[in-house]
Design goal:
The protein is of the alpha/beta class. It folds into 2 domains: about 220 residues, FAD/NAD(P)-binding domain (3-Layer(bba) Sandwich); about 150 residues, FAD/NAD(P)-binding domain, CATH 3.50.50. About 30% of the residues lie in helices and about 25% in strands. The strands form 7 sheets. A 7-stranded mixed sheet has the order 7-6-5-2-1-8-21. β12, α7 and β13 form a beta-alpha-beta unit. The longest helix is centred in the first third of the chain and has 20 residues. It starts with 7 loop residues before the first strand and ends with a helix. The mean pLDDT is about 95. Bound molecules: flavin-adenine dinucleotide. Flavin-adenine dinucleotide binds next to α1, β2, α2, β5 and α6. The site of flavin-adenine dinucleotide (FAD) has 36 residues, from α1, β2, α2, β5 and α6. Keywords: FAD, Flavoprotein, NAD, Oxidoreductase. This is NAD(P)/FAD-dependent oxidoreductase. Belongs to the NADH dehydrogenase family. InterPro entries: FAD/NAD-bd_sf (IPR036188), FAD/NAD-binding_dom (IPR023753), NDH-2 (IPR045024).
Length: about 450
């Protein structure tokens, strides 16, 4: 017998958008007003902008994995798993739990915040040989991998093997790729001093992008400053260039160059989570097309936000622009969507989302940084203070703030020990292995599944 009479709110994804939404729902709704459930494969909210610092060892992985169970006040029921399909008609979300059980979760209101996955192209060898920089496991793995290249090059007597192990390629000149290349170059630059047999001149980092500029959002002057900093540090930047093919020991650029390397890091943009396609609803460049209130027109109780939704960017006017996929928008949308869900629940009117971009911060490691808060162009130490201050204050819990600050101080004072943990040794760990993109159902499979299992209330 069904004894639940409260409306059921289901939030999918515990990232910037999902966690902000859940915390606000918990604060603003009384426990007998609605049941809140969160579906998430991991027990933490990942602070993605600091991922390059985990890869380079400035921060430990735990410091940017913010606990979802830090307080007794957190009363949301958490289902450990991933949503693999949503049936809008019967209002059921199909979930694969972390033990591979398939369960149906009915809802009255659903908030879709599964974020994005790495955007790949049909480039031969790409998904088999490239690493991504989108999950905590990938960042930790890349760190081990880079250190192991130094270890193996040091042990090798073969000059060709040494050369290929000491070249590194990062594709993507957005902030994710630029920060990744910059932070990892600092890692190898510092680490090589502990390998007296290795010639530091053999270490070479390449940062490439098909676009004519790095991080165009920074503007011409600041973008050139960022390039100048990277070039000064020996990172070779190739613009208007991409990858033609990737192999286990070499990468071919579209300009014909063949780079011997065992390290290809692919950060060339993101696309909405494949969960969005399972709805069979209208999308804009793969993101769910929602109204400025972040609800799905024609489907009561369905909301989407963050990287997975095409939320109109009203601050830019009415010309069809959508909010860029940034943490800055996702966390504000999370709060806003919670208010709109509550308004819908209480029969009140919903508000449109408007946020004017606050700018961009880019941490290039050490005292190198460029930032553009509120349109003010900063370089060097002031830019770094703004970048770190911004990220630090955006971390959700005081314990996470303390961990990050302690790690920054420790790293500044004591440096890095360049320890290779070996956790992932001999395990497949390329792009295709980390983002579980083949787990999702098609809209037809979702329907068949719901019809076959019956709707559980
Ligand atoms: C390296 C890097 C650096 C960045 N730097 C910046 C920066 O400096 N400033 C900035 O504003 N933005 C930055 N971003 C972008 C920013 O992190 C994203 O825009 C932001 O995380 C989007 O928030 P979200 O909640 O939509 O998605 P996410 O934060 O990615 O959260 C999505 C959550 O959903 C979970 N999930 C995925 N699929 C499912 C499923 N099927 N079922 C259930 N749960 C699921 C994921 O595990 C994750 O927890 C950076 C991103 C990267 C990768």
């Amino acid at each position: 017998m069904n004894t639940v009479t409260r409306p059921r709110i289901l939030v999918v994804g515990a990232g910037f958008a999902g966690v902000e939404c859940v915390r606000r729902l918990e604060r603003k709704l009384s426990p007998d007003e609605a049941d809140v459930t969160l579906v998430t494969p991991f027990a933490y909210q990942l602070y993605l902008p600091l991922l390059p610092q985990v890869a380079s060892g400035v921060l430990t992985p735990q410091s940017i994995a913010v606990s979802l169970r830090r307080s007794k006040k957190y009363r949301t029921r958490i289902i450990p798993g991933g949503a693999i399909g949503v049936d809008l008609k019967s209002k059921v979300c199909v979930i694969r739990t972390i033990t591979d059980q398939i369960v149906n979760e009915p809802y009255d209101y659903i908030v879709l915040a599964p974020g994005s996955i790495t955007r790949t192209f049909d480039i031969p060898g790409l998904t088999d040989h490239a690493f991504g920089m989108k999950t905590l496991a990938e960042a930790a793995y890349i760190r081990d991998h880079v250190i192991s290249q130094l270890d193996l090059a040091d042990a090798s007597q073969d000059p060709d093997e040494r050369a290929s192990r000491l070249q590194f390629v990062v594709v993507g000149g957005g902030y994710a790729g630029t920060e990744t290349a910059a932070c990892l170059q600092r890692l190898t630059h510092a680490a090589v001093k502990r390998y007296p047999r290795l010639d530091p001149g053999l270490i070479k980092w390449h940062l490439i992008d098909i676009a004519p500029k790095l991080m165009p959002e920074l503007g011409d002057k600041l973008g050139s400053s960022a390039q100048e900093i990277l070039r000064r540090r020996g990172i070779e930047i190739s613009l208007g260039t991409s990858i033609a093919k990737a192999g286990p020991e070499e990468v071919t650029f579209t300009d014909g160059r063949v780079i011997p390397t065992r390290t290809l890091i692919w950060t060339a943009g993101v696309v909405a989570s494949p969960l969005i396609a399972t709805l069979g609803a209208e999308t804009v460049k793969g993101r769910l097309a929602v109204a400025p209130e972040m609800n799905l027109p024609g489907n009561d109780g369905v909301f989407a936000l963050g990287d997975s939704a095409a939320v109109p960017d009203l601050a830019k006017g009415d010309d069809g622009a959508m909010c860029p996929p940034t943490a800055q928008h996702a966390l504000r949308q999370g709060k806003h969507v919670a208010d709109n869900v509550i308004a819908a629940l209480r029969g009140q009117s919903m508000q449109r989302y408007v946020h004017k971009d606050l700018g961009l911060v880019v941490d290039l490691g050490g005292t190198d940084a460029v930032s553009k808060p509120l349109g003010i162009e900063l370089r060097g130490l002031p830019a770094q203070a703004v970048a770190r201050g911004y990220h630090w204050s955006a971390l959700r819990t005081n314990v996470a703030k303390t961990r990050v600050m302690t790690n920054w101080l420790l790293n500044a004072v004591a440096g890095d020990d360049f320890v290779r943990t070996g956790f992932q040794t001999r395990k497949a760990a390329r792009l295709k292995d980390f983002e579980y993109t083949d787990a999702y159902l098609t809209p037809e499979q979702v329907r068949e599944h719901i019809e076959g299992t019956g709707r559980r209330d």
